[in-house]
Amino acid sequence: MTIAAANRQWPAQGLARVPYWVYSDRELYAQEQERIFRGTTWNFLCLEAELPGPDTYCRSTLGEMPVVVARDAGGTIHAFENRCAHRGSLLCLHERGEAKEIVCIYHNWTYDLAGNLTGVAFRRGLGGKGGMPKDATPEAHGPRKLRVETLAGLVFGTLSADTPPLADYLGAEIVTRIRRVMRAPVKLLGGYSQVLPNNWKLYMENVKDSYHASLLHAFFTTFRLNRLSQKGGVIISEAGGNHTTYSMAADVAGKEYEQAGMRSAQDDFHLEAPELLTTVDEYGDGVGLQILGVFPGFVLQQIRNSLAVRRVVPQGLEKTELVWTCFGFVTDDEALTELRLRQANLIGPAGYISMEDGAATGFVQRSARAAADELSVVEMGGHGTASEDNRVTEAAVRGFWKDYRGHMGL
Amino acid sequence: MNIELHFQVQDLNARYVHAIDDDRLEQWPDFFTDDGRYHITTAENVARGLPLSLMSTTSRAMMRDRINSLRNANVYESQRYRHVVGAMLIEPAENGIVRAVSNFLVARIMHTGETILFATGRYEDRVAMADSGLRFIEKIVILDSRQIDTLLAIPL
Q1: Chain B contacts of A190, Cβ < 8 Å?
Q2: Complex-level ipTM
Q3: Is B31 helix (H, G, I), strand (E, B) or coil?
Q4: How far apart are CA A89 and CA A83, in angstroms?
């Protein structure tokens, strides 16, 4: 294993520290694309519901690599690089659509929905003149194909032949928690993107940071949607990069936050329209919150009845697009759909809860620029990355860095 | 065409955007009827027939909660908006309700001075007469882009 960037060495304190150069080193960012996003990782591409029938496609990404995801006439899902074998033009120019074949606009080269080159315009020339040499093999430089696996309506892709099967990569506990949320066929409710002014890893850390949730997000705390005093825990995969935090919805009457004078617990903040928080226990297990992350950049959210997938798209050292897709199930009645749409006020870029993550991660990026060799402290819950039965811990954050360092050779 | 009604509808919208830009957010709900609806969504969601909103309120009470949360609970970096609204297309009143559509550009100015074109789109409004004058029964904000820079705290 080679060290990823010249002279970069992880601090001796190991996972209890994160050096700020991880957010500001351009060479490291470039190597992440190759070693992580195009490496031995499973990357969330889209929901199966975004490919609603045979001969449909949508666009996605593998880090910065543009990808086409397509469902062929037989119903099989394929994913391949959005790049023509010829001179490299994008093949699919629209976010989604229906097509029986793909035609590159530049020179009309054609592809099937598995990304195989099927036709080269005027390959044999015209009138006996021109055309390609008989022994030319343009298909040898075709768009790279991803291995695709689906789980519970989620489509994942990997570019590497060495990535273990998806179920092994996720681990049994994470698979169980995914299946728990994805309890029926998906019905899309809509989407939007949040463009964050920070490195992608800051967002993934934020998601894995169960410690911050009820301290930054006053809405969580004040309305007891999420308090660290609620029964719950964090499950972390063996390799460290996949996690689930969960907490029970049961209202905890404790006054730990108030007594500690926490900013986020506001006794005099009341909702005039409390129907915002009306919930049904659709899973029947009393778990009101489950946030699940898959390395490198996927989040599955259940906050009460608000369900969403979030895809992390790095767009530069200090820019990340967070693509949100909210959904329900085809079995939802009108009342449950309305609940989901109302609770969507909690999430997304305008979310009562989520808006603050957009602010906090940007603040870290701004101080990180001039602090490359300084260290941030990740010691809540100790130094380990094992699952815990409480959430006053940063174990999942340390797990992320364990997995990251493994992929990057740091 | 009822010129006076036309003017009043435009005036309502002008006072609405000025209240937001002047940080008189507490007045925001007052531009609506009691069960007035305010939604922010994207052109893409509308085109695909998808119901998700970024912000959705179905009463003034919910709107007051939004403003209360912005002032007292939520954390976001200090910022202001500056709206520029285009001419309103106003349809004749039907059953006492007027439909109006107008385009908007909103700049976001951070307390540091950094200014960007934050949002563009159109308002689709339904306006009704109330005792105290015209009010929005419904204001739908349809953003042209699906992308929001950093966060969307203040209503548009």
Answers
A1: 41-42, 45, 48, 50-53
A2: 0.97
A3: helix
A4: 6
- Contact of B36 with chain A, judged by CB distance below 8 Å, is answered with no
- Tell whether B150 is covered by a domain: no
Q: What residue ranges of chain A have pLDDT lower than 70?
A: 1-6, 223-225, 250-253, 267
Tokens (6 digits) for B45: 């969601």
Is A30 part of a structural domain of the chain? no
Residue A238 forms part of a structural domain: yes
Sheet with strand A232-236: strands edge to edge? A232-236, A243-248, A287-294, A298-303, A306-314, A320-329, A186-196, B147-149
Q: How far is CA A230 from CA A264, A266, A287, A301, in A?
A: 16, 17, 10, 18
Give the number of other CB atoms < 10 A from CB of residue A159: 23
Identify the residue whose tokens are 């602010």: A359
Question: What proportions of chain A, in percent to the nearest 5, are helix, strand and coil?
Answer: 25, 25, 45
Q: Do B50 and A222 touch (CB under 8 A)?
A: no
Termini Cα distance of chain B: 29
pLDDT in tens, B16-51: 999 999 999 999 999 999 999 999 999 999 999 999
d(CA A325, CA A48): 12
Residue of A nearest to B52 (CA): A190
| Buried-exposed string A170-189: b where 16+ CB fall within 10 A, e elsewhere | bbebbbebbebbbeeebebb
Give the whole-angstrom CA distance, residue B99 versus residue A198: 41
When divided into structural domains, chain A yields a total of 2
Total Cβ atoms within 10 A of residue B25: 17
B67 touches chain A (CB under 8 A): no
| Pairwise CA distance, residues A382 & A21, whole Å | 23
CA dist A113 and A99 (Å) reads: 8
Name the pTM for this structure: 0.95
Expressed as residue numbers, the domain containing A66 is 43-151
**Total length of chain A:** 410
Task: Indicate whether B116 belongs to any domain.
Answer: yes
User: From the candidates B32, B53, B60, B106, which should be mutated to test the interface with A, based on the most A CB atoms within 10 A?
Assistant: B53
Give pLDDT, residue A242.
98
